[in-house]
Design goal:
Immunoglobulin-like; eight-stranded antiparallel β-sheet; 28 strands; 6 helices
Length: 482
């Protein structure tokens, strides 16, 4: 038990003196406590101490027996559980012909043939009046042999590179099929050509490279979901990716792969292109889901117009493929009741938020008719070919209260959106008669996805004594949540 207590002392001292110190473990073999091993061993040597209770002449010997990792782990477990008998039974046998006599108690371990972790048992024998006493202690150290350095680059020749949309306006790059190495860190660099990029000493501090991390679920490496990658996606240029790796053995950055052309995905075009969007006499919040990096300053057109062609509404109501397509064509050619261009500076999304633009609400007062349908059309400017121009359209139903001058637009896809019954040959909400082709890509009346942001809208209308009151509230803090 005394030897087990010494093990606990070792753990405490390792915390206090963590550098270049080898942990040690002891078993209760020397019942007379003649032999004491060092609690801590530095480097490849230590010293065995003989008790002062030994007054006779004695001879002291030692020998080292190497342990494999499994046996060392079993011995370690036995000590942790304070199982003395199990500990003694696991100790390896010593060889009688391998004892090395030591005059001063010093012993040494030859670690020159080993690299990495080395596990071994030090046996001690003291002979007093021809009576031998034995004890042993287990150690773990680091070999002094330089490990073989793997200087080969990671092979990405069979890897697949896929650009994916992430969240509202970010993008990620997923790389699969490469045999990754534990002693490497990986980064990506985006360029507009297939040439091998030049690696300089300060590459680690450069904004040109982006971190990527291993995803255990998909067995792939994925770039972090920031807008760093998104700023390249929206550029009207070819997109090539190089993989930069850092070797922890050589302490060098190298290009492991380059010249991989990335296929850009298509941006959403219809109501799926809008996130948490609403317009009212109290606030304006229009957020697109176009890929966008905050480093890029953009311009976009925002147009609102009345939908006078009820055949378009009927198609959309019945989820016909041509419905949204026709609405996009209609909104592009229509003059609209509101049409203005806006700048986006330093924002992570292509958006217009009245509370971030000096509370400048897009005012449609006097321009809307109650229960009529209107489109919202957005188009980003390519700015002389520098960026990819994206456009999208959705529709909304107007609620107008003339006496209070309160108005709001309930957008397609929200819980508040509803359809009006159309007359004549047009289908009503309860009429399921249709043979037209359905479009599964169009989102029907469901709550808008919030994907990491929060929005609370409450619109209430109370009629008391002929007086109409209203309230409208939302949480503007959603913007900082992603």
């Amino acid at each position: 038990m005394k030897k087990i207590i010494s093990y606990l002392i070792v753990l405490i001292m390792l915390i206090v003196f963590p550098l270049n110190i080898v942990s040690a473990y002891s078993g209760d073999l020397d019942t007379e406590d003649y032999i004491t091993f060092p609690y801590l061993v530095t480097g490849d040597s230590g010293k065995i101490t003989v008790s002062d209770s030994v007054e006779e002449e004695y001879e002291l010997y030692y020998q080292v027996v190497m342990l494999d990792a499994d046996l060392y782990a079993q011995i370690d477990e036995a000590i942790t559980e304070e199982n003395t008998e199990e500990y003694k039974s696991l100790l390896p046998d010593f060889e009688e012909d391998n004892w090395v006599q030591t005059e001063d108690g010093n012993f040494s371990v030859d670690l020159s043939e080993y690299s990495g972790e080395v596990n071994y048992c030090v046996w001690a024998k003291i002979v007093i009046q021809e009576q031998p006493y034995y004890d042993a202690q287990v150690y773990s150290s680091l070999g002094t042999k330089e490990p073989a350095q793997d200087t080969e680059k990671t092979d990405f020749s069979n890897a697949t590179f896929e650009l994916k949309k992430e969240g509202v306006s970010d993008a990620i790059l997923e790389i699969k099929g490469a045999e990754l190495k534990e002693d490497r860190d990986y980064y990506i660099m985006v360029t507009d050509n297939a040439s091998e990029p030049e690696i300089t000493r300060d590459i680690a501090y450069s904004s040109d490279i982006m971190s990527i991390e291993y995803n255990e679920e998909t067995n792939s490496i994925v770039s972090l979901a920031t807008d760093d990658l998104a700023q390249y996606v929206e550029l009207n240029k070819d997109m090539y990716v190089s993989v930069i790796e850092y070797n922890h053995n050589t302490f060098e950055y190298t290009v492991a792969s380059y010249g991989t052309k990335i296929t850009k995905y298509n941006e959403p075009t219809y109501n799926k292109a809008f996130f948490a969007t609403f317009m009212a006499s109290t606030d304006t919040q229009i957020i697109t889901q176009f890929t966008h990096g905050s480093a890029n300053d953009r311009k976009f057109e925002l147009k609102v117009g009345k939908i006078t062609d009820t055949s378009i509404l009927q198609k959309i109501k019945n989820s016909e493929t041509e419905g949204m397509q026709d609405l996009l064509t209609y909104s592009k050619s229509d003059k609209g009741i509101y049409d203005k261009n806006f700048d986006v500076t330093g924002s992570s999304d292509i958006e217009y938020l009245s509370y971030e633009n000096g509370d400048k609400i897009i005012d449609l007062n006097g321009l809307l008719e109650d229960d009529e349908y209107y489109y919202l059309y957005v188009k980003t400017d390519d700015e002389n070919g520098e960026y990819i121009s994206n456009e999208a359209v959705t529709l909304a139903k107007a609620n107008v209260y003339t006496e209070t001058k309160f108005w709001s637009l309930f957008f397609y896809g929200s819980d508040d959106f509803s359809w009006t019954e159309f007359s004549g040959e047009n289908l009503t909400q309860n009429n399921e008669k249709t043979t037209t082709k359905k479009d599964d890509t169009i989102t029907t009346a469901k709550t808008l996805p919030y994907t990491g942001k929060e929005l609370w809208i409450t619109v209430s209308i109370v009629i008391l004594g002929g007086v109409i009151g209203w309230s409208h509230h939302k949480n503007k803090m959603y913007k900082d949540i992603k």
